[in-house]
Write a structure and sequence with these properties.
Elements: E1 42-44, E2 54-58, H1 60-65, H2 70-73, H3 76-83, E3 94-96, E4 100-102, E5 105-107, E6 115-122, E7 128-134, E8 149-150, H4 151-167, E9 173-185, E10 189-199, H5 205-213, H6 217-231, H7 241-263, E11 265-266, E12 288-289, H8 313-328, H9 336-347, H10 350-365, H11 375-388, H12 393-405, H13 410-414, H14 423-435, H15 441-449, H16 459-472, H17 476-485, H18 496-499
Antiparallel strand pairs: 1-3, 2-9, 4-5, 6-7, 7-10, 8-10, 9-10, 11-12
Helix pairs in contact: 4-16, 4-17, 5-8, 7-8, 7-9, 7-10, 8-9, 11-14, 12-15, 16-17
The structure holds adenosine monophosphate and magnesium ion (MG).
Length: 515
Amino acid sequence: MVRDLTGVELFRPSVHMVRMDTPITPTIPFDNSYARLPERFFSRVNPTPVAAPQLIRVNEPLARDLGIDPAALASPEGIAMLAGNRIAEGSDPIAMAYAGHQFGNFVPQLGDGRAILIGEVLDTHGIRRDIHLKGAGRTPYSRMGDGRAALGPVLREYIVSEAFAALGIPTTRALAAVTTGDWVLREEPLPGAVLARVASSHIRVGTFQFFAARKDTEAIRTLADYAIARHYPDLTDRPEKYRDFLSAVIARQGELIAKWMYVGFIHGVMNTDNCAITGETIDFGPCAFMDTYHPSTVFSSIDHAGRYAFASQPAIANWNLVRFAETLLPILGDTQEQAIAAAQERIDAYPAVFQAAITDGYAAKLGIENKSSDDTTLIQDFLTVMANGAADYTLSFRTLSDAAEDPAKEAGLSALFSEAAGLDAWLLRWRQRLATDARAPRDIAAAMRAVNPVIIPRNHQVEAAIKAAVGTGDFAPFHRLVDELAKPFDDRPGIDDLKLPPKPDEIVRATFCGT
Ligand code: AMP
Ligand code: MG
């Protein structure tokens, strides 16, 4: 690719799988609700047009799920809309206001500095979903930022969020990505891109903190009522609906973090502004998947203190939820004492919620059907053996799945460990445990393969796909990763290279924020 700061012929992203024969104006059945909330919740702002948008990819199944014709999104009008060059009919673009604790420090005003909510749609299941353009230009919340996104982080978010959806982990989704034809200046000039992101909503713990910091109790109540109606409608008529709302958010967050742990995911920036009250994963910045298992693994180049290390994530989510509970205090009780006591009681449930979720998930990963309290030790001991043996997390669980029906596969498992001491003894205990469940080995293995992925978005592969796209305009590795990661549990011909951990010279040691 020519690095010409003035030229237009920068990228020719391949248009992927979408019919281009009939350019159709995208009709998006917008049904906006957040933009009807009081004006202090957001700022009305249009995306800033870009020079020469080109389509990278449209997520066809997701578009259809939203009731949007994917071919229309891929048409020139659709691409113009995705790039922010055209405002679709019914769109009411806003930047949402929020605050947040970033690495433990409170920032009273953040807000969508480079993302614009263009509107909401009711999907084909009747679920209300946000369509959000990330990298759409400056907003009143941009502070020193340029409001833009570089191509690499857009591709990373596309790959990882879609892989998450296929892994069954609650997440925001990628509807489409376009290049802008403009450069964004980071340490070096980088090609710009815009990601069209879909979320159940973009309400964060930080959204509540924005109003709490301003002692705006009326707004807290309005926001809580809105969030309950939209995400937890069953709570609407409960006598303790705000307390139950807190509990529901705690439960979803605990379940989410457990699901991250099962696949070895490290978010990297678990700030309260990146903590969605829906329990969806949001903001795939310097995130990464562990190859070699170690609980203290950190990738993010900005996480100097290791605050968001792999094994710290459950406790950090707890910390974020305490910040959330604090914002709700004015509506949790008639007196402050009552409110604090209620908040404390709900928060105290988090460790048990998380523990139940993580034990269930790991028990399933080990092929255990009816878990008992003794299984916690069996699970912990496997993790310890894996850490001591610097074994690959994903391959260990997957190979163990195969070994459940074919003991000969134990050799392949042990080959993953640099130090296999303790593995044989553990395997013996594991087999004895499985025998008590009275399931046929074949069925155990099948159940394990359904929860232990054979491929995940490995960092070195994501980096290679980004490098090909940014360096030479070759989007084929990106498309292949997205396509293959849509089926993470099925082993099949043609994906052998994607199963492999990095070679020593391919290991990604640090990841950088998407800014
Ligand atoms: P993040 O670390 O991506 O979650 O972003 C933290 C805050 O910084 C949010 O308020 C973002 O909107 C804002 N931000 C990040 N990058 C940019 C940018 N390039 N321009 C403007 N605001 C940004
Ligand atoms: Mg963020």
